[in-house]
Specification:
heterodimer, A: 134 residues, 5 strands, elongated, B: 136 residues, alpha+beta, six-stranded antiparallel beta sheet, globular
Chain lengths: 134, 136
């Protein structure tokens, strides 16, 4: 059942995905995946010549947007997302979200796009006490 | 459940929160950032990401994140020490047109506060390519 949507669509833009941030996050997470820092490996895998952004960084872009929309991180009860395409260093990522009421539950529908392609889609479910206007 | 790793521990420090917020271009006022739950899960588990990959007999080049489901029960707090339980819940063999044979591996991280209350649960699905000859 489709819910009642509240405008406006809220957006957050990352103008240029930073490869240095990927190195930092790889070190913080002890992430052994070389495609986030080693362009030689990226090339060998046929992924081009730019490092691939970590999923948790892209997730954080959408979590930021969700917090901006509801005003308090504590109101986010659950966050589910699907990774649909790689994001590369240098990409411009446009995140957008709408809030809807689905059968009495407040939900944020969030997507991240690079150009016209959706790279990450997510749904955030809110705690019952959140009735703040956008 | 297919495998339970030993329990691990992680103390979330101010510099972790600051550096994470900086890396994800977040508002510095948003600390600790909710995305830090991923850091606490990965670092706090009683095994490394590389060891998890070794356990399922793969290498980083063959692994992609597929899905992530985070249940926020309580907010993370800077300075708190958390225990983390990691389990492999499921591994499903699939075949796709572009990818060929692959496994969908479901992992569950439980971030637990001192005192035993669940703080955050993360369920993650890895897409693990299985080139010909790899084990099931």
């Amino acid at each position: 059942m489709s819910g009642k949507r509240y405008e406006p669509v809220v957006t957050r833009i990352i103008e240029c995905v930073d490869p240095e941030a990927m190195k930092l996050v790889a070190a913080l997470m002890d992430d052994p995946q070389p495609i986030h820092w080693d362009t030689k490996t990226v090339g060998e895998l046929g992924l081009g010549d730019h490092p691939v952004n970590q999923g948790p960084i892209a997730v954080s872009y959408l979590l930021d947007l969700a917090v901006e929309m509801v005003g308090d991180a504590a109101l986010i009860r659950r966050f589910r997302c699907r990774f649909l395409r790689n994001v590369f260093a240098g990409d411009r990522v446009e995140c957008s979200g709408v809030r809807e009421n689905r059968d009495g539950e407040e939900i944020l529908i969030l997507v991240a796009r690079v150009g016209d392609e959706v790279v990450l889609e997510a749904e955030a479910r809110l705690r019952a006490q959140s009735h703040q206007p956008l | 459940m297919l495998h339970q790793f030993p329990r691990g521990y992680f103390t979330l420090s101010h510099h972790h929160a600051w550096l994470w917020a900086d890396a994800v271009k977040s508002d510095p006022k948003l600390m600790p950032h909710p995305g830090l739950a991923i850091l606490v899960a990965f670092r706090g588990a009683g095994t490394t990401i590389a060891e998890v990959m070794a356990h399922i007999e793969t290498t980083p080049q063959h692994v992609q994140f597929g899905e992530l489901d985070i249940a926020f029960e309580k907010p993370l707090r800077i300075g708190s020490r958390y225990s983390v339980d990691l389990a492999i819940l499921l591994s499903e063999r699939k075949t796709g047109r572009s990818m060929g044979v692959f496994d969908l591996v479901t992992l569950r991280y439980a971030i637990i506060e001192r005192g035993g209350d669940l703080c955050t649960e993360l369920v993650q699905r890895w897409v693990v390519a299985r080139p010909q000859g790899h084990p099931s």
